[in-house]
Design goal:
This protein has 453 residues and is an alpha/beta fold. The protein has two domains: 44-68 and 103-301, 3-Layer(aba) Sandwich (Aspartate Aminotransferase, domain 2); 304-447, Aspartate Aminotransferase, domain 1. Helices cover 36% and strands 13% of the residues. The chain contains 17 helices and twelve strands. The chain has helices at 2-6, 31-35, 46-52, 78-85, 104-117, 128-139, 154-168, 180-186, 210-219, 268-274, 281-285, 291-298, 304-324, 340-346, 364-376, 407-413, 430-443, and strands at 121-125, 145-149, 171-175, 192-198, 223-227, 244-248, 262-266, 329-330, 356-360, 381-383, 392-396, 419-423. The strands form two sheets. It has a seven-stranded mixed sheet, with helices on both faces. Strands 8-9-12-11-10 form a five-stranded mixed sheet. Helix 9 links the parallel strand 4 and strand 5. The radius of gyration is 23 Å and the shape is globular. The protein starts with a helix and ends in a 10-residue tail after the last helix. 51% of the residues are buried. This is Methionine gamma-lyase. Its cofactor is pyridoxal 5'-phosphate. Pfam families: Cys_Met_Meta_PP.
């Protein structure tokens, strides 16, 4: 059976097993050998690193990899199963147990994500929240402590402020991530296990000083975990000093608003520990990615760089024009943004500054009125949460994606009741879409709105 599986299959890595189960394995993952063969040498260009990663060919020589849809896998010799469960044999040698543990198709997507983020290894999960929660639970035990930015996605804020204290006795101190002294003072040596923040905050678009925060975390002996969902390709947190990078792949990486998925990118030792049969959060909690989903995403990653360039190009153009109209615009590509120079110093060259633009309309009523015009009268965009779609997506964050936060928490995070978060799309041509935006503004007919046209 194994011979039928492997004969006449082009395997560039030379790791497909033959009829005998006679390999020795040192660990579940040999990251630098099998997951990221040459990508680490491409410096600060994530797209080049992704292109240099191992290409997985199909079973019959197809340019696209095959989908391994099996939930369970056979072995040639009875003793092999014992050796796999003991960790002696693993997927680095093409030995698979069960797809909740490792699946070849999902593993290949993990290789691509590791190359993209410049980490040793990566594991892809069923959602972004499952990636975040699994990492935090692996790094923190009962009685543990997290220091986190107060400017994080509402679901993450709820996990840290409500669920983890109640269910796991893990507490969090929320800080202004821009105040480095505040971050230092919040870390309790010996108790704090994780420093957690977003590379670009949801929804306020604050830019974290990743190198300095990583230095502070490492000086204090804590693991630095960065959510890079808002800035794939634009920023590479691991190359800037972070230990772990998490993603909601559902957003820009997918690009189609049709998939829910996540990823944990970091050291091979962490991924191995998360897949441990006795103590691994990914293994035991089971946020398993479907192999068919992994196949879909693997085909979208190669054009992520092209899509992000256009997303960011249009966002910069729109933000500049919105500012000229007298609107209150938040966009890190504008020189007046407080962290513009910081972002410029950290960003990967030629991919832009962000695909997100925020408009502060001050009140929810004004924000809703503008979004109604933009969707229902001029077709500029869609009122919907999420990011990275080819259409522009708009939502009032305070009453949607940050609704888990209390009014006081939203005020501390700088989330105005009228803050509209826009994920700028690339459908149509730029002038066509800008004309739609201008027409919506002209319909507002509100002298207090601040429109100068």
């Amino acid at each position: 059976m194994a011979e039928t599986k492997t004969n006449n299959v082009f395997v560039p890595s030379g790791k497909k097993r033959t009829g005998q189960d006679d390999f020795d394995g040192d660990d579940v993952i040999k990251a630098k050998k099998s997951m990221l063969p040459s990508a680490l040498s491409f410096g600060d260009d994530p797209v080049a690193a992704l292109a240099a990663a191992r290409h997985e060919f199909g079973e019959h020589g197809g340019v696209n990899m095959s989908i391994e849809a099996s939930a369970t896998f056979t072995v040639m010799e009875p003793d092999t199963m014992r050796r796999m469960f003991s960790g002696e044999l693993g997927p680095d040698r093409d030995f698979f147990i069960y797809s909740r543990h490792f699946n070849p198709t999902v593993l290949n997507l993990g290789r691509q994500m590791a190359a993209l983020e410049g980490t040793e290894a990566a594991y892809c999960t069923a959602s972004g929240m499952s990636a975040i929660s699994s990492v935090l639970l692996q790094l923190c035990s009962s009685g543990g402590h997290v220091v986190a930015s107060r400017n994080v996605y509402g679901g993450t804020h709820a996990l840290l402020s409500h669920f983890l204290p109640r269910a796991c006795n893990i507490t969090t101190t929320f800080v202004n991530i821009l105040d480095l002294d505040m971050v230092k003072n919040a870390i309790v040596e010996g108790k704090t296990k994780v420093l957690y923040f977003e590379s670009m905050s949801n929804p306020t678009l604050q830019v974290a000083n990743i190198p300095e925060l990583s230095r502070i975390g490492h000086d204090k002996g804590v693991t630095v975990v960065v959510d890079n969902t808002f800035a794939p390709v634009v920023l590479s947190p691991a190359r800037l000093g972070a230990d772990v990078v998490v993603h909601s792949i559902s957003k820009f990486i997918s690009g189609g608003a049709d998939i829910i998925a996540g990823a944990v990118c970091g050291p091979a030792s962490l991924v191995n520990s998360m897949m441990d049969l006795q103590q691994g959060t990914l293994m035991l909690l089971g946020p398993t990615m479907n192999a068919k989903v992994a196949f879909e995403l693997s085909g979208r990653l190669p054009h992520l760089g092209l899509r992000m360039r256009e997303h960011c190009h249009r966002a910069m153009e729109y933000a500049t024009r919105m500012k000229k109209l007298g609107l209150k615009v938040i966009y890190p590509g504008l020189e007046e943004h407080p962290q513009h120079q910081l972002l410029k110093s950290m960003a990967n060259k030629d991919y832009g500054f962000s695909a997100l633009v925020c408009l502060d309309m001050e009140t929810e009523e004004r924000a809703n009125r503008l979004m109604n015009h933009l969707q229902n009268y001029t077709q500029f965009g869609l009122m919907a949460v999420s990011l990275g779609y080819y259409e522009t997506l708009m939502s009032v964050s305070g009453s949607s994606t940050s609704s888990e936060m209390s009014p006081e928490e939203k005020k501390l995070a700088g989330i105005s009741p009228g803050l509209i978060r826009m994920s700028i799309g690339y459908i149509g041509n730029l002038e066509q879409k800008w004309s739609q935006f201008e027409k919506a503004i002209s319909r507002m007919q509100d002298s207090s709105f601040g429109y100068k046209g």
